[in-house]
UniProtKB/TrEMBL annotation:
It is an enzyme of class 2 (transferase). This is 6-phosphofructokinase. The keyword Acyltransferase does not apply. The keyword Transport does not apply. Catalyzes the phosphorylation of D-fructose 6-phosphate to fructose 1,6-bisphosphate by ATP, the first committing step of glycolysis. Negatively regulates the phagocyte oxidative burst in response to bacterial infection by controlling cellular NADPH biosynthesis and NADPH oxidase-derived reactive oxygen species. Upon macrophage activation, drives the metabolic switch toward glycolysis, thus preventing glucose turnover that produces NADPH via pentose phosphate pathway. GO terms for biological process: canonical glycolysis; fructose 1,6-bisphosphate metabolic process; fructose 6-phosphate metabolic process.
Amino acid sequence: MWLSRPPSRWVPCWCSDVPAVPRVSSAGMNAAVRAVTRMGIYVGAKVFLIYEGYEGLVEGGDNIKQATWLSVSNIIQLGGTVIGSARCKAFTTRQGRLRAARNLVEHGITNLCVIGGDGSLTGADIFRAEWAGLLDELLRDGLISEEVAKANGRLNVVGLVGSIDNDFCGTDMTIGTDSALHRIMEVIDAITTTAQSHQRTFVLEVMGRHCGYLALVSGLASGADWLFIPESPPEDGWEDLMCERLGETRSRGSRLNIIIIAEGAIDRNGKPISSNYVKDVRAAGWEQKVGEGLCHHPRGASDSLQSSKMGMEAVMALLEATPDTPACVVSLSGNQSVRLPLMECVQVTKDVQKAMDEKRFDEAIQLRGRSFENNWNIYKLLAHQKPAQEKSPFSLAILNVGAPAAGMNAAVRSAVRISICRGHTVYAVSDGFEGLAKGQIREVGWHDVAGWLGRGGSMLGTKRTLPKTCMEKIVENVRKFNIQALLVIGGFEAYEGVLQLVEARGQYEELCIIMCVIPATISNNVPGTDFSLGSDTAVNAAMESCDRIKQSASGTKRRVFIVETMGGYCGYLSTVTGIAVGADAAYVYEDPFTIHDLKANVEHLTDKMKTDIQRGLVLRNEKCHEHYTTEFLYNLYSSEGKGIFDCRINVLGHLQQGGAPTPFDRNYGTKLGVKAVLWMSEKLQEAYRKGRVFANSADSACVIGLRKKVVAFSPVTELKKVTDFEHRLPQEQWWLNLRLMLKMLANYQISLTEYISGKMEHVTRRTLSIEKGF
């Protein structure tokens, strides 16, 4: 179906450009270049790289070069774009586009893949609309023949949005945004210790000329005291209110204040609000700016993964294009690839700016999408304590269970604060179910969780003990403290522990309470969710380690690294890290392999290492096979590669578990904590009768998780039916579809019959209002 015309006629090229104003390139662009190039070659097409964006397209010559598989080797870890990007005034004119058309026709290029912002993509759509007229003009001037004009009669265009500002409506996250957020959070984490030591106020300016996404998410992920975004200017007189609020936090013992400003921040009258002005208003601060250096930071794993996935989908979109197919943008919605009509996205993006220009700020926030609106509402809810309207009769206990995972503390912080906002009594339990049994329970307040967002591990303390070993003591303390709801944040043990409590309800009436599990484990093996807290941090830690491992062999002889990752029986870490670093193979338990597969892999890698490729990377999940151990793989590859390459072993171990949480895990944990408590509050009201809570229905004990596009609550008793308890895995795992991409980009000949193409979805106010869960 997708090869309905000869591959030789499908000739994609890559163009990266932002013509309107000087901007910087985005991390993740090279991963997209690599994916488009390799996928194009994989399906039998010629692929051309266009250097220096539209300028190269207009100038032609050496700026348009045919690519090979090796042309994009060892670029996935690099920031910026190896093919360059430049403004081009000539392309904004018809004469310039006429020259560009001639250059494409000379190379037989009829498919164009463009990465850039709305200006670049709009230019591509204009170019596409004019294509027939441009060919007629070239034919009339005698610059091309009638046969050439007929052979190149249609230009297909697909776009990938590259913008660290995440300012393109309709997409969850644009290429470069995740890396920019990493950079901002690194700076905030670094200055926090200085601010605490010297009791300073830091004013941090981040990029975002027309969109406050970076400021908003970094403010949410850092617990900033005050936030300025262009979509929601502060009310008149904000200066006095800000100083009053900051003074209140100091009077309660805080030693620092963080103020974050988007570079496009304005007041209600449209006057710019600068970081210098805010510093002068505060009159006790010190300024730190984060400007264009943001996107020069090495990429986040999310940028590599989504860029690779979108790059492959872009090729499929071009292959499947028909004369009636509009120019589209490839994006991800949740973990699904989607295609969006380009001009619908551009129009809504323009509508946002128009709404801001006309001071319709509430509408501007809504047009940004439901996720943006939720971020803003949650930030306002958690930034400053607001007295509950009335004291509720409910008490809620929070505990961590299992191994520590980044993001646990963010979830605890938001759960505590939203519970206080609802008037609940909140208890913190130390050391998991064991602490609950021993009575290690204390009431916590708003300021007890201050500063927890950026902390790794578990501030509450966590253990793997399951309830069945101490059930009677747990029941005794539930009764003693009158606990009516239990929020358990942890990995597979948290899920299994809550399931044990539910199954014990028939014996202990005290356990007929509301229970919720927030999955938090680097293994990402909890049923009921596509993503667990901590897994993003773990993937980023593994990716950075693999990048350093590969770099360690730079300048030496050919070398292959065998790297072991954690994850138990779950191969998520190995697979996603493998895609992010461009691994040659990733062995996991869920994708069984034999000695014949190993032999084929070794031969494949040996052939590659006979070319100009200097380094190879093979990942192995720690429990992927009982007999084919890391040592076995090392010996096998060393023996078969003797004389061609040598091998080294690296066991990443617990470094995947430690470190500061990524922006995603901080934001995700914050949102899950809020959503879990709001759900539990609703369930408590439903189960409250005659002064007590009694809940024994299946939906009173759930796992909260992100499933495809939405946050869902799944009863633990239902999830039991789809769980492999022996191997501590869900029976179905969405990420196994990613292994096809891993193998294709490593040049294994795999059938495309299993590839699931993205669907065309429209961008309207209704679709923007749908809750995406992030």
